[in-house]
Design goal:
Elements lengths: L6 E3 L5 E3 L3 E2 L5 H13 L4 E3 L7 H11 L7 E6 L6 H14 L7 E4 L5 H4 L9 H16 L6 E4 L3 H9 L7 E5 L7 H9 L3 E5 L11 H10 L3 H11 L3 E3 L5 H6 L9 H8 L5
Parallel strand pairs: 3-4, 4-5, 5-6, 6-7, 7-8, 8-9, 9-10
Antiparallel strand pairs: 1-2
Helix pairs in contact: 1-2, 3-5, 8-9
Amino acid sequence: MGKEKITLKLNNGTAIPQIGLGTWQMSPEEAYDSVKFALENGYIHIDGARAYANSEASGRAWKDSGVKREDIWITTKIRAEIKDYEGAQEEIENELASFQTDYLDLVLIHCPQPWAEYKANGEGNRYFKENLEVWKAMVEAYEAGKIKALGVSNFHPVDLENIINNSDVKPVVNQISYRIGYTQDNYVEAAEANDVLIEAYSPLGTGKILNNDDIKKIADKYSKSVAQVAIQYCLQKGHIVLPKSVTPKYILENIELDFELSAEDLDYLDSLDTK
């Protein structure tokens, strides 16, 4: 079994594959080729989003891969700008249609605030009430069997607390930007305190850390690439990790993780700052 088949248990009892293929910043053509290749070569977890505008291509790719629906995990996200019950219902139905499936394994609220406000350092309206309306629509779809698990993304601890304190259905994950040298410990601590797993997106810093000499020293020690060390780091921290690549060589390399980082090397990587 490769590490792409390893699973973690979510707080609703569902098992999620610990490594998935991220599809952010992929064109529809890139998503089709990458998802199909990944599924044909061992991946069983695809991470998408309505905002990526490539769900239909990813859906065609899994259909054409020949892999059975029950053997793969599909995640998608409700756009950050959708902050009402009816809008969330429509997003879910649209993603079911785009992925050509009767159910989605995981649906996330993509961001607690519309992106323009979130990128302005999260000041102003936290959208507590509106996120609960979106969550209500998600819970209804979950209870109807259209979604297997519900979660959030980019949620500050207070935003996560808002959902947990006002719903009988707890988020199973908080998907955040996470990499060596940028671990957002306050987000991680809040999630772990509530039995919520962290999903690490952009574990390679969208390429930012690939030329990092400090990480390369560790990679050379294990005869691995910086990317492989970065992904393995997230795995050993107990997180779900979502590396993205459109290059077949790197898609394969990102799951070739037949090594373990020593405690000493983990401590060293913990000491780095890649912000």
